[in-house]
Amino acid sequence: MPPIIRTHDLRKTFRSPKRRPGVGGALRTLFSREIEEKVAVRDVTMELEPGELVGYIGPNGAGKSTTIKMLTGILVPTAGTIEVAGLVPYERRNENARNIGVVFGQRSQLYWDLPLVESFELLRAIYSIPKDRYRENLQRFIEMLEMEPFLRTPVRQLSLGQRMRGDFAAAMLHNPRIVYLDEPTIGLDVVAKEAIREFVRHINQDRGTTIILTTHDLADVERLSRRIILIDKGTVIYDGTVDHIKEQYGTHRTLVLTLTEPHANPALEGAEIESNDRGLVRYRFDRRRVRPDQLIREATEQYELRDVSIEEPDLESIIRRIYVEGYEQEPVNT
Amino acid sequence: MTLEPYVEFAKKAFAREATYRLEVFTEIGSLIVRVYLLRSVWTALYAQNIAPMNLPLHSMITYATVALLMSLILEVDGTRLIREKLREGTIATDLMKPISVPFYFFSDGFGQTGLHALLVIPCILFALLLVHIDVPSPAVFGMFLLSFAIGYLLNFFVNFVMNAIAFWTLETFAIQLIVRWVSDLLSGQIIPLTFFPGIFGRIVFALPFAAIYSTPLLIYVGVIAPQDYGRMLLVQILWLGLFSTLSLFMWRAAARRVVIQGG
User: What is the pTM of this model?
Assistant: First the structure.
């Protein structure tokens, strides 16, 4: 199957008048015509297969939202090519709009003054969704997202979690082939996050919808997607599987021992003590040099243990490290 | 293009306006007060001065009352949604939908107006308790409605242009306030434009504001004679053409700015 989303050397440059600080600066800004150029997205090339769920990850201002806006067709690229389901989004905004669904965590597409269900009815009219399919989808979504109790409540009175669930349903009612989720779980509590992840999984796996998920919450990505694209300062720095990046960077593990008696220096060969707090000792070790069972055996021989556990590095700490150090094919282990 | 979404937009805007019940009732209340005040003012003024020959007191009170009823519909700014959406940045989500955004604004404005148009009925009933309104022949009344409809559309586009300025300035309050003051005075909403003397009179008749209130009102009270209907409606239509074209251009420019600069 050909890719459903394809970009090649996609670039977006914003031009804005150069601003100077202070009152005098503000006056000079008013009269000077100095233009500042900022490259928000720099030569991004990516391809997505139909049915893929890709995590699109980067710090604030990395260019994630700008990329999404170009994919929806509301922003025209400065250079490069872009194609979504065979269409160039900015040239065929209306047709493209029928293929896509969008959820922004920070802003709602629901109609503020109307009861939630009336926003859904409005969307049925906007996308000309056949009545029976609309009813079927709505019923399904109401059950999955537990929207029954607040279906008749005006959107402005909904809690953030309720509103987000409404927004998810709204984005999927017309069975879009592609869905863009921009920070969808921001500010939600654990329960709401879980409900939404479950819903995204359903949309992706049972309906085969292609999904691009941008998020700060890497737990979303770890739970949902196999592939991630890392972007920093407008440039793609990694495109591959979550497992691969973990394999590559996650060479270190943490061994946590709880000793029955506090010990001043409970050394173990091949591991380095990270912290030692009244008998709770954390060791860092390289799993390529020493096997965990060796360490544990050594520990049981030397000390009396109440508890043992091994922690894997999470995606978040790996990615934090990549942003600080830059991505390298063969990272140097420290 | 299917009309269904736009009918729905209008219906939802109607429902939304209806939720502001207090506003609806104060609107009726304040209108009744203004009808009474204007009757008193014009009666006092006419008692002190010689009545203009084509506008006797009963015609003047009819003019003032009908103007107030018209304002129920014309003072609804159906395009303020544009300004709000720009400030909150929600225009982007509208552009991501398979709809014509300007036509969406129009339907929404039309729905809002629809609710306020309904208020005209109780207002007429209350107004009739306070004042006597002349009723023209069906032919004249029909012509009044036609002229009013054109004036309504013109008013929409004038508002559209003003609110679209928000694309560049993000703030249009001052501009709107000035235009509002000028148009209140020069549209014939309060003072019939026939009262303006000489060259000043000719200038105000040549402005677009006259095509919003003055033309339908002067048709209603019979100051514009049937042989002049064609000419007056043509002037209205020309203004409508001009402002709708201007709106279209401003929308295009604004939309281009959104897609180039990200709104």
Answer: 0.79
Q: What is the ipTM of this complex?
A: 0.76
Type of residue numbered A184: P
Cα B109 to Cα A127: distance, rounded to the nearest angstrom: 21
A242-249 vs A315-325: helix axis angle to the nearest 10? 70
To the nearest 10 degrees (0 to 180), the angle between helices A116-126 and B4-18 is 160
Structural domain for A285, as ranges: 251-312
Instruction: Count up the domains in chain A and report the number.
Output: 2
- CA A201 to CA B226: how far, in whole Å? 70
Q: Are residues A174 and A196 in the same domain?
A: yes
Number of helices and strands (H, E) in chain A? 11, 13
Q: Which among B16, B97, B261 has the least Cβ separation from residue A126?
A: B97
Searching chain A, which residue's CA lies closest to the CA of residue B95? A74
Inter-chain touch B96–A90, beta carbons under 8 Å: no
Residues A240 and A256 in one domain: no
**Per-residue pLDDT tens digits of chain A, which is 334 residues long:** 789 999 999 999 988 766 667 777 767 666 666 778 889 999 999 999 999 999 999 888 888 989 999 999 988 899 999 999 999 998 898 899 999 999 988 888 898 888 999 999 999 999 999 999 999 999 999 999 999 999 999 999 999 999 999 999 999 999 999 999 998 888 888 888 888 899 999 999 999 999 999 987 788 888 888 899 999 889 998 999 988 888 887 778 889 999 888 888 888 888 888 888 888 899 988 888 888 888 889 888 888 888 998 887 777 778 877 877 777 765 544 4
Sheet holding A272-277, edge to edge: A272-277, A280-286, A252-259, A305-311
Residue in B with minimal Cα distance to A110: B93
Residue A321 tokens read as 């490290």
Whether residues A184 and A297 fall in one domain: no
Q: Do residues A133 and A179 share a domain?
A: yes
CATH code, domain carrying A57:
3.40.50.300
Q: Nearest CA to A322 among A220, A218, A212? A: A218
> B4 vs A128: CB contact, 8 Å cut-off?
yes
Final residue belonging to a domain, choices A223, A246, A269: A246
| Interchain CB distance below 8 Å, B97 and A73 | no
* Residue B121 one-letter amino acid: I
